[in-house]
Amino acid sequence: MLSTTAFLAVAMQCAATVHPDTALDVARAESGFNPLAIAEIIPRAERRPGVNSVISYLPTNRSDAVNIVRLIEARKRRYSVGLMQITSANFSRFKVTAENLFSPCTNLSIFEKIITDCYQRGGSLKRALSCYYSGNFNTGLRPEKAFRQTSYVQRIGYSPPDNGYRVPSTREDRQGRGAVPVTPPPSSPVFESWDVLREYPRSEKPEENLIETKENPHDDVQKSA
Question: What is the DSSP track for 156-186?
Answer without folding.
Answer: HT-----TT-SS--HHHHHTT--PPPPPPPP
